[in-house]
């Protein structure tokens, strides 16, 4: 049976490195590193994410700015908020919580973010830096995947990776981050044929399709490292009338019988995302000030 990767414990470890790094940087910077989070509307999941981001930013010793606006805000006003945060020298990281209301173009808003403050790694500039192998801020969730895979398997050079899903947020950057580790990467998506056969050869499977339990145990190579990014709320009649639960994109029990390592949902990849958001904020603060990365987060 697989060893279960404890994403909460891993995230707590990274948070503690960030906290130490903040202490190392703060005196040279003359202020605490600062993350600004912009939240539009009342989406309940977004409220929870933002609350957790603010809490962990502050727990790591960084300053947090939270900007909340009504869902009826106009695009131009939201762009103006991001521009003001770009111009504020005391702000190191800017994050606009997705999804945005339908009348706002998320690309326009994201492209407004100064790439040097783009702690989600979502701007075209950040994506270009990743593809070119240039220094820059990398998307948080896939960074968490690579870090956990390295903890589980050690050196990743030459490993074969199947990434399931090609979103800008997860799948595509995951493919390039594993490529950066000298893995051989197969980037699959909803039109991919013979996905089970591809998975059967993979040392690492990154499941990010948003399809509950689509990856079956029989697809997994013995001993593989299975990283389940999916977060899907499904009916759970066993919890009584109207009950629901969270499941990943992997049929966990089956996959755990064949995998060497597996992340649970919840408590696997999820907590790692905020950990790397904090890492990115600290990196951005150092880079913007022309200072070396704090010792405590080297290698992260
Ligand atoms: P998305 O909907 O933008 O992209 C899904 C991708 O999966 C698409 O590229 C699509 O081609 C592919 N896909 C769909 N069906 C497929 C199939 N049957 N076979 C192969 N590929 C298929 O989603 P996203 O934003 O990348 O998120 C994916 C999942 O990860 C969601 O469940 C989301 O909630 C979760 N997520 C978790 C975190 C975290 O912190 N753990 C962060 C971001 C997203």
From TrEMBL:
Cross-referenced SUPFAM superfamilies: Aminoacid dehydrogenase-like, N-terminal domain (SSF53223), NAD(P)-binding Rossmann-fold domains (SSF51735)
UniProt-listed Enzyme Commission number(s): 1.5.1.5, 3.5.4.9
Name assigned to this protein: Bifunctional protein FolD
InterPro entries recorded: Aminoacid_DH-like_N_sf (IPR046346), NAD(P)-bd_dom_sf (IPR036291), THF_DH/CycHdrlase (IPR000672), THF_DH/CycHdrlase_cat_dom (IPR020630), THF_DH/CycHdrlase_CS (IPR020867), THF_DH/CycHdrlase_NAD-bd_dom (IPR020631)
The species this protein was found in: Marinicauda algicola
PROSITE patterns, per database record: THF_DHG_CYH_1, THF_DHG_CYH_2
Summary of subunit composition and partner proteins: Homodimer.
UniProt xrefs under PANTHER family: C-1-TETRAHYDROFOLATE SYNTHASE, CYTOPLASMIC, C-1-TETRAHYDROFOLATE SYNTHASE, CYTOPLASMIC-RELATED
CDD domains in UniProt: NAD_bind_m-THF_DH_Cyclohyd (cd01080)
